[in-house]
Specification:
The complex is a heterodimer of chains A (586) and B (774). Chain A has 586 residues and is α/β, with parallel strands linked by helices. Chain A has helices at 2-5, 10-45, 51-100, 103-109, 111-151, 155-202, 204-209, 213-239, 241-266, 269-317, 378-383, 408-414, 429-433, 445-454, 458-463, 481-494, 511-524, 537-540, 560-566, 568-577, 580-585, and strands at residues 338-345, 355-362, 367-371, 393-398, 401-402, 415-418, 427-428, 471-472, 499-503, 529-533, 545-550, 553-558. Classes of the chains: A alpha/beta (586), B alpha/beta (774).
């Protein structure tokens, strides 16, 4: 938490100081108000006091109130300013950090968690600053100030106030101890209820096919009842809070008055009036004390939440980037070659290698394919090229230069990467296809169209209402999986890369589209090198070189025909997908 | 207790389409909980009434206490009268000669005249006085006596008796010296007894000594003395006097008022407590009912509903919207009732107590409230703006984070950062404004309270001075001002939350009111699973999705015989699932008929049809529960042995037994089981279902080779002896199918077996060949 506060700029610290000064002023004026109140009370009380005096004191009191309002407004402005600026800067910091995080760390954090860290967690702290800063400063100052003001005005009253504060804190503590752990369970149950409903919705066909509606409903009702009972328990416990607060406050006022009556009765005449004034003042100061303890209690409820958020944010910010860019600007003589030299890869904490001693080389214009069962390391292998991971041992060379030596941009300019799950950005189709920066001018409209044509996307784009200006919703929810994949491929084509990396990028396409697309692509990018990861034999069997992976090891390399003869693993895969005659026909 | 505003993020400023209608509907739905609500509302009103009545008692208490501040003027006056009765000049002159009884005998005169210690001047004065005495000019003589030195006076005044009391020389000298200013005399005790008689005021006896002290004190007072000093002087008086003049409080009355107040506060607290318990019950029971209704409704809606609505949308009704309603029931509803009662009640009470002060209080608060309303309106605008901006920013963050690899690989970081900066700045700007404005509410409220207080005090003081009201009334009004201003802001808050509640309930009831699937009440036919032979006939089936202009399937006729395999093929998005939807009666066909063993599916219940079909789809749906539960899924009388048998058959048994808890392992995290294994589990589930018909989606995505083999063979086993409809992906399945339905753009374009279709050389042939084109 404190660590994050270091992010505040000098200006913001200065503003914080202003804010604190204003709050102190505000408290000072607020605590002056009861003085005038009692003055007015006494004036009204005693016969023969002049109207002018009452008006004067009333005027002072209104001035104090107005002043405190103005100070509060000022403090509020500064607090809002600091909170907003802080959250803006922190968010920016996290965002920049995440953009530079290594894939491995992103996996460890999980994307959804990173999103909440950037959004909700920041908002939590922002709230603490906006509200807490004021309360945090105000509550203790008010409490201490008010206490010193009333401390010597009668120990009996002080004792009663002390008891009231203790009861207040006691009730809050007990409630917290009982209820807070249950709140966590409530959250879990809500998640569970959500889960069951989601389950029912995503599997609606299955649920109905198995006539399992009642089964689901019963499951839902069970959790629903549990949730309701727990909520009832919690809220019933909390229901006691308000009446208790009410009793404490009024009880305290009453006690002060009652004790005051006794004190006045037993005091000498000279002290009576001042005692009465003190009584009135005391009761209002005592209220302030109670209020500020209440505020403090509230802060202590917010702080732990913000603390958790701060911790989560710091986790992200403290992560060290391991994959650092090189300095090479990418100007190579060689074009389109990819070479793996005895490359091995394992995750930092893992014992087992994901990839072991992989070596191969592809030249410009060639296609190399990687096949193997899930977990064989195909995707990891091609992820070493754009440096999503760095090889643990060995070298990955592009155009004869180790990828680690390239500047990030220079390396990326050579590559056209298409992930397994096509990524769409909110924006037009044009925007999506021309996305990014390849060191050259932005793709022209003709280029975009060309790319779409090659990617077999032209047809469906033309059918859309606004054609290339059609808006793609966030996450591409308004286009189908196959369409997304084709757009993602078009995006890579529009980039004119030396090397294409297809990470199982044809899986959502039907056989026909898949085949046509690859053929067109081959024609269009004669000089480009392709790295293809695929599950389907049909997709890869025409590759110049096929690398067969099994548990991270290369168990075969060659053309389709060669491998059918030499590589058992390959043969098995092929046979599971195609019949013998089809294999022979091919 | 100040209401914690959990940040603007939680404020929902959505508005209902039809606020009145939504609220009406909400309350009509609450009908079953009417009693509890009425009890809660009644208690809320009672509690508020007590809160309104309490200030008057508190003002009585203050009046009683302040009665103990001012000295008892009546007693003071009568005391002064009594005491000074004996001490006026006339009285003195009457008794003085007798009291002093100067010894003016010849001897005395002689002894004075002959005393050498006495100056000639003094002797001359003495003689003068003597002449005055002789002239009968007593008053002048006595006043002149005080000019004489003590040595003369000592000789004149000797101890004598007055009314049985010995009066010493000293006393006499003192008396003489005091002269006219009788109050300055230091009287000895004997003298005091002569001047003052014991008196009784209010039952308190006051001795002459005390009276003397009183008169001494009073006489030394300056006319312009301050009140405080006066009281200080008074405090030095003897007890008997103080008892008489000191203010008294009616302690017993104070005690009884306090007791009454304690009772009122306690009752009010108990009312509040019971009220919140009632509302908590109402809120949670209602929420429970709503959730349950939504859950039931999900299963009553036709599938077409889910084509148009997103899952997240429905889920958010179950959680967010229901929560919204429950929360506002729990917090806002009762507080709205009590706030309104407080508001109206305090206005009434104010007018009853004093109309001038009432108007003062209302007018002075009103000014503030107008300002507040303006701010509230403005801040709402900024809150909405903030929500939108935040939504944009979050959307962007989500987009970039989830596509980070692409962003990186396409050098899109710069662009992403720029966009982020833009959104972030916008959020920051609207944040500042909305945070600032929302922070204003509290201080303004406080100011209104203070302003009202002063206004009431000043006007009240004027009225008090005119004697129109007592101080207690002002005290009562100080509370009324608070009682009057607080509920207004609470009402404003409750109204905002009521707005969102209306919007939420509208969404929920929209969902609950969605038209359900066609009624099945008139269906009497039932096909028994065991007796069904396995015929399926499509006869001129016409089907159209809602909202589509053209029918998806027009005039489709096909026949499947028992045990036959029907393959459905076509490119992605060709509408293969439409066939599944129609077979399972998930959708009703528009025209034509689908018959099972010659019986129209229109004459069978959906449940009956579902019983006859085993369906294994591509999206392997598993739920959180044990493996066994997932396999048995809602089937009755399935033994553990049967589960094991099936799992062995599909090749899962070994895998399941490697798990820590075997068949009782909970599939909590979907990732713990690989895609292939999930597929096998759904196949096992289908096998247990044992029915004459099968719908199977062959697609296996991202499954490794070995598992895929397992899956294939499991699927083959599943089709044995069943009339099967297979969404085919394997060429072997397609080639062996008895009937191939070729779909394109949602329509069945060709049908026949492989050879027939290849001969047609149409779409199917094209599709088949494409896979192996170079």
């Amino acid at each position: 938490m404190l660590k994050l506060l270091k992010n505040l700029t000098k200006k913001e610290w200065l503003f914080a100081l202003f804010c604190i000064i204003l709050i102190v002023g505000q408290v000072w004026l607020e605590l002056k108000i009861p003085d005038y109140m009692s003055e007015i009370t006494v004036l009204v009380q005693t016969e023969g006091s002049k109207m002018a005096d009452i008006i004067r004191n009333g005027g002072y009191m209104v001035l104090c109130a107005l002043g405190s309002l103005i100070f509060a407004v000022g403090a509020g402005y500064f607090a809002a300013y600091i909170a907003s600026e802080f959250s803006k800067n922190t968010r920016k910091q996290i965002f920049d950090k995440v953009q530079n995080l290594d894939t491995e760390e992103i996996k460890a954090f999980q994307t959804s968690s990173l999103i909440t860290r950037t959004t909700n967690d920041v908002t939590q702290i922002e709230m603490l600053i906006a509200m807490g800063l004021q309360l945090l400063v105000k509550a203790p100052i008010t409490a201490i100030w008010a206490i010193t003001k009333i401390l010597n005005k009668g120990w009996q009253w002080s004792a009663v106030t002390g008891v009231a504060v203790l009861i207040l804190l006691g009730v809050i503590t007990v409630l917290m101890i009982i209820v807070v752990p249950r709140f966590k369970i409530v959250q879990k149950l809500i998640d569970k209820i959500n889960g069951i409903a989601r389950e029912n919705l995503t599997g609606i066909r299955v649920v109905r096919a198995f006539n399992a509606e009642k089964y689901q409903e019963q499951k839902f009702d069970k959790v629903n009842d549990k949730l309701t009972n727990l909520q009832l328990f919690n809220q019933k416990k909390f229901a006691i809070m308000m009446p208790v607060m009410y009793l404490i406050m009024y009880g305290l006022t009453l006690s002060i008055y009652f004790i005051g009556a006794g004190l006045i009765q037993n005091s000498v005449l000279a002290d009576k009036i001042s005692l009465f004034g003190n009584m009135i003042v005391f009761s209002s100061y005592a209220m302030q004390v109670i209020m500020s303890f209440l505020m403090l209690a509230m802060i202590f409820m917010i702080i732990p939440r913000a603390e958790v958020s701060a911790k989560r944010i710091n986790e992200v910010l403290d992560t060290k980037q391991k994959i650092l860019p090189g300095t090479f600007d990418g100007n190579t003589k060689e074009k389109g070659t990819v070479e793996f030299k005895n490359v091995s890869f394992k995750y930092p904490d893992a014992d087992e290698y994901v990839l072991e001693n992989i070596s191969f080389k592809v030249n410009q214009g060639e296609t190399i394919a990687f096949i193997g069962s899930t977990g064989s390391g195909k995707s990891t292998l091609i992820n070493l090229v754009p440096r999503f991971y760095d090889a643990t041992e060995g070298e990955v060379l592009i155009d004869g230069v180790n990828v680690k030596e390239y500047k990030t941009e220079a390396l990326n300019n050579k590559l056209g990467y298409i992930p397994q799950k096509a990524v769409m950005f909110a924006g037009t189709i044009n925007y999506n296809i021309s996305y990014g920066d390849n060191g050259k001018a932005k793709a022209s409209e003709t280029k975009i169209k060309e790319a779409a044509k090659v990617a077999q996307a032209d047809e469906f784009i033309e059918k859309m209402d606004d054609k290339y200006e059609t808006h793609i919703a966030q996450g591409g929810t308004n286009v189908s999986g196959g369409q997304k994949q084709r757009l993602a491929i078009a995006r890579a084509i529009a980039r004119d890369p030396e090397i294409y990396i297809f990470d199982d990028s044809f899986s959502a396409l039907d056989y026909k589209t898949d085949a046509v697309l690859r053929k067109e692509l081959k024609n269009y990018t004669k000089n480009a090198t392709s790295l293809i990861v695929a599950q389907r034999i049909g997709t890869i069997m025409n590759a110049d070189k096929i690398v067969v992976l099994d548990s991270g090891k290369c168990v075969g390399m060659g053309t389709h025909k060669e491998l059918l003869k030499t590589c058992d693993v390959y043969k098995q895969i092929a046979l599971s997908q195609l019949s013998k005659e089809e294999l022979e026909n091919a | 207790m100040p209401r914690v505003n959990h940040g603007p993020g939680n404020n929902n400023y959505e508005k209902a389409r039809d606020f009145k209608g939504a609220v009406k509907r909400l309350f009509s739905e609450l009908n079953t909980l009417k009693t509890l609500i009425i009890v809660a509302f009644t208690l809320a009103i009672l509690g508020s009434i007590l809160s309104i009545l309490a200030p008057n008692r508190l003002s009585d208490l203050t009046d009683e206490i302040s009665a103990g501040l001012v000295i008892n003027q009546d007693n003071m006056q009568s005391l002064t009268k009594e005491v000074t009765k004996n001490l006026n000049e006339k009285q003195l002159q009457k008794i003085l000669p007798e009291l002093l009884s100067p010894n003016m005998s010849e001897e005395t005169i002689e002894s004075i005249m002959q005393d050498n210690n006495i100056s000639a001047e003094n002797k001359r004065q003495f003689q003068e006085i003597l002449t005055q005495f002789e002239d009968g000019n007593q008053t002048e003589a006595f006043s002149n006596l005080q000019k004489l030195p003590n040595n003369i006076l000592e000789k004149i005044f000797t101890d004598s008796e007055y009314k049985g009391t010995t009066i010493t020389t000293q006393d006499k000298i003192a008396l003489i010296k005091a002269g006219k200013d009788l109050k300055q005399i230091n009287l000895s005790k004997n003298m005091q007894n002569i001047f003052f008689q014991e008196i009784t005021i209010d039952g308190t006896k006051i001795t002459p000594q005390d009276q003397y002290k009183f008169i001494k004190t009073i006489s030394t007072l300056d006319k312009n003395i301050g009140e405080e000093q006066l009281y200080k002087k008074l405090d030095t008086l003897p007890k008997s006097i103080r008892t008489v003049i000191e203010p008294t409080m009616n302690m017993s009355k104070i005690k009884s008022i306090t007791l009454l107040l304690v009772c009122m506060y306690l009752a009010s607290a108990i009312f509040t407590y019971i009220q919140s318990i009632c509302m908590t019950n109402v809120a949670n029971k209602f929420a429970n009912k709503l959730r349950s209704r939504i859950s039931v409704k999900i299963n009553k809606l036709p599938l077409k509903y889910f084509d148009k609505h997103q899952i997240g949308d429905i889920l958010s009704r179950i959680t967010n919207d229901v929560d919204m309603i429950a929360q506002s029931m729990n917090q806002s509803l009762a507080s709205l009732v009590s706030s309104i009662t407080l508001f109206l009640g305090s206005i009434i009470m104010m007018f009853i107590t004093n109309w001038i002060l009432a108007i003062t209080a209302i007018v002075s608060s009103l000014v503030g409230f107008i300002g507040m309303a303006v701010i509230l309106k403005k801040s709402q605008k900024y809150f909405m703006q903030r929500q939108t901006e935040l939504g944009n920013l979050n959307g962007h963050i989500e987009e970039i984070y989830s596509g980070l690899n692409v962003v990186k690989a396409y050098n899109g970081k710069e662009e992403a950062s720029q966009k982020f900066e833009k959104f972030n700045n916008k959020v920051c700007q609207s944040n500042k404004k909305s945070q600032f404005l929302s922070g204003l509410m509290q201080p303004i409220m406080a100011f209104i309270g203070n302003f009202g207080y002063v206004a009431v005090c000043i006007v009240g003081a004027m009225l008090t001075m005119n004697g129109q009201i007592s101080f207690g009334v002002i005290v009562a009004f100080m509370t009324y001002v608070r009682l009057f201003t607080n509920p207004l802001s609470q009402i404003a808050q409750a109204m905002t939350s009521l707005q969102s509640t209306a919007a939420a309930s509208e969404r929920i009831f929209d969902f609950v009111d969605e038209p359900e699937m066609s009624s099945q009440e008139n269906i009497t036919k039932h096909l028994d699973k065991k007796d069904v032979k396995g015929y399926i006939d499509f006869e001129n089936v016409v089907f159209k999705y809602d909202g589509n202009d053209k029918p998806t399937i027009k005039d489709f006729t096909a026949h499947a015989k028992p045990g036959q395999k029907v393959a459905i093929v076509g490119p992605t998005g060709a509408g293969k699932t439409t066939m599944v939807n129609l077979l399972m009666k998930f959708y009703d066909i528009n025209d034509g008929d689908i018959k099972i063993d010659g019986v129209s599916t229109k004459e069978l219940t959906r449940e009956n049809i579902h019983e006859l079909f085993t369906m294994v789809l591509q999206d392997t749906w598993l739920f959180e529960g044990t493996i066994k539960e997932n396999i048995i899924y809602n089937q009755q009388n399935i033994s553990d042995e049967r589960v094991k048998e099936v799992c062995k058959e599909v090749g899962l048994d070994h895998f399941i037994r490697t798990l820590s808890k075997g068949y009782d392992t909970i599939l909590s995290d979907n990732e713990s089981v690989s895609a292939g294994q999930r597929q096998l589990l759904t196949i096992a589930r289908g096998m247990i279902h044992e029915s004459p018909f099968l719908i199977l989606d062959e697609a296996t995505s991202n499954v490794d080779t070995r598992t895929e083999e397992l899956v294939q063979s499991a699927m083959d086993k599943l089709t044995e002896g069943k009339t099967s409809f297979i969404i085919a992906h394997r060429l072997s399945t397609i080639k062996n199918a008895d009937l191939i339905l070729v779909m394109k753009d949602g329509n069945i374009v060709e049908q026949g077996n492989h050879e027939q279709l290849m001969q047609q050389n149409g779409f199917y042939a094209n599709l088949y060949n494409s896979q192996f084109e170079q």
